[in-house]
UniProtKB/TrEMBL annotation:
EC numbers on record: 4.2.3.1
Keywords: Amino-acid biosynthesis, Lyase, Pyridoxal phosphate, Threonine biosynthesis
Entry protein name: Threonine synthase
PANTHER family per the UniProt record, alphabetical: THREONINE SYNTHASE FAMILY MEMBER, THREONINE SYNTHASE-LIKE 2
Protein family according to the UniProt entry: Belongs to the threonine synthase family.
Entry keyword Lyase: yes
GO biological process: threonine biosynthetic process
Pfam families, sorted: PALP, THR4_C, Thr_synth_N
Associated pathway: Amino-acid biosynthesis; L-threonine biosynthesis; L-threonine from L-aspartate: step 5/5
Keyword Metal-binding carried by entry: no
Lineage: Bacteria, Pseudomonadati, Pseudomonadota, Betaproteobacteria, Burkholderiales
Tryptophan synthase beta chain-like PALP domain segment(s): 97-339
Residues in Threonine synthase N-terminal domain copies: 2-79
């Protein structure tokens, strides 16, 4: 399988070649030259497979330069019930991403796909644990070192750091928006004392952190000299590993592979739902992919109106689902590339416009009229909506959900279709946003034993301005 850039001006490369690099040299994002197609018979034959083996079936279509036995071994090492039971040991832990039906609403079943049982209690662990093992494997083959530069709004950071702490030859430099994450999220990252982990608290919002990562990646000389790699969903490895749980969710929800299912995805950087889009492009029978945003509703606005209007940092709101406080959704470019029939030149033009004037408007163009064929729908949730949804799901079903999942449930309920099951992706555990849970329910969220005293541990973090030069200087000073 070869990979090409969404901006059409980088040489095609193999999976392992793009894995360590992140952004393509022309500033675009990598996508496969074609989406492998999965037949109904293939899907049926995957029913009942252990998660690691299902992951092998899906990922072997993409990671064609990793020998079969190595890929299978990496996946079996990654996807174990021991690694994915940190939050809530449960009966069906062997499913890795168990599906919990909540009940029947408006003539259809609604359920939660549990993606947050990994070491840091958010869905990011699903891909990041695999990437940690894969980086180690790839570096052993080449003898290279890797310095990861990442941006986080709270969950990617800790998932990457827990996956990579203590690994030989890899350092992590993680940019986080100072004061914008929950106290629990900050403590998860900043309490790590491993010498290969560096936390930088940036004076800005997540988008400022993400812009710095992209600017550093676009300085090709610095990137090469400093062996910079990425773990954000701009890295194809992250997205493709997330494709697997759409297959798992579908197979757990259905009895035959002709049935349709819809997914609602709490969305910010468009990485998670982009993985759903790819699963659908591969032939997974997904009726709708519903993007649920919080008050930072750039994506909802686009799907409703055809106008993509990235917000400036000062316009990005600090909400009670803070991991989705994102106004420039990186992976949206991957979808736009497909929407433009994989025309790299046209995609580059659109995103040049985003940099120059902050967005684009396709509301009057034929491609916007065609958007329905990709199955996307969208909606937005507010602080009041999420409080009411957390209360309602607790009262009605006895299930406590986090604030991001609550945004998902709220928007899912606005898009139920009789007879088509709706799966909401559960993206984090409630303890990560305990202040809002207390506010909604008047009682504390359950805290896994491993994190009981997390907030009282000493923290190691450096404050830094939202300045590319300062970040480069920090990295350079900590490379040896
Ligand atoms: C808990 C949680 N929910 C939802 C999201 C949004 O996911 P994405 O950025 O892939 O759209 C994030 C961050 O990415 C998150 O951390
Ligand atoms: N919500 C994320 C930020 C987006 O990260 P990505 O790695 O999925 O691109 C976070 O919690 O850090």
């Amino acid at each position: 399988m070869r990979y090409q850039s969404t901006r059409g001006n980088s040489p095609q490369q193999s999976f392992l070649e793009i894995l360590l690099g992140g952004l393509a040299p022309d500033g675009g994002l990598y996508l496969p030259t074609e989406y492998p197609q999965v037949t109904t018979a293939q899907l049926d034959s995957w029913r009942g497979l252990p998660y690691a083996d299902l992951a092998y079936e899906v990922l072997s279509l993409y990671c064609t330069d990793i020998p079969e036995n190595d890929l299978r071994a990496l996946l079996r090492k990654t996807y174990t019930a021991e690694v994915y039971c940190n939050g809530r040991p449960q009966d069906n832990a062997q499913d890795i991403t168990p599906l919990h039906w909540l009940g029947e609403e408006q003539g259809t079943r609604i359920g939660l796909l549990s993606l947050s049982n990994g070491p840091t209690l958010a869905f990011k662990d699903m891909a990041m644990q695999f990437l940690g093992n894969l980086f180690e494997y790839a570096l052993k083959q080449t003898g290279q070192k890797l310095n990861i530069l990442g941006a986080t709004s709270g969950d990617t950071g800790s998932a990457a750091e827990y996956a990579i702490r203590g690994k030989e030859g890899i350092k992590v430099f993680m940019l986080s928006p100072r004061g914008k994450m929950s106290a629990f999220q900050a403590a998860q990252m900043y309490s790590l004392q491993d010498p290969n982990i560096f936390n930088l608290a940036v004076d800005g919002v997540f988008d400022d952190c993400q812009d710095i990562v992209k600017a550093v990646s676009n300085d090709h000389a610095f990137k090469l000299k400093s062996e910079i790699g990425t773990v954000n969903s701009i890295n194809w490895g992250r997205v493709v590993a997330q494709v697997v749980y759409y297959f798992q969710g579908y197979l757990l929800a259905t009895k035959t592979s002709t049935e349709k299912v819809s997914f609602t995805v709490p969305s910010g950087n468009f990485g998670n739902i982009c993985a759903g889009h790819i699963a659908r492009m591969m032939g997974l029978p997904i009726a709708h992919l519903v993007a649920a945003t919080n008050e930072n509703d750039v994506l909802d606005e686009f799907f409703r109106t055809g106008v993509y209007r990235a917000r400036k940092s000062a316009e990005t709101l600090h909400t009670s689902s803070p991991s989705m406080d994102i106004s420039k959704a990186s992976n949206f470019e991957r979808f736009v590339y497909d929407l433009l029939s994989q025309d790299g030149k046209a995609t580059a033009e659109m995103f040049k416009q985003v940099d120059a004037v902050g967005g684009f408007d396709i509301s009057k163009e034929a491609i916007f009229k065609d958007i329905g064929k990709y199955g996307f729908q969208s909606g937005r949730s507010s602080h009041q909506n999420r409080i009411e949804t957390i209360q309602d799901i607790d009262q009605r079903y006895g299930v406590m959900i986090d604030t991001h999942t609550a945004d998902g449930v709220k928007v899912a309920r606005d898009h139920l279709q009789a007879g088509i099951p709706m799966i909401v992706l559960e993206t984090a555990l409630p303890i990560k946003f305990e202040e809002t849970i207390e506010l909604a329910l008047g009682r504390p969220a359950e805290c896994p034993a491993a994190f009981k005293d997390i907030k009282s541990k000493p923290q190691r973090v450096e404050n830094i301005a939202a300045d590319v030069m300062q970040v480069k200087a920090f990295i350079t000073a900590h490379l040896t």
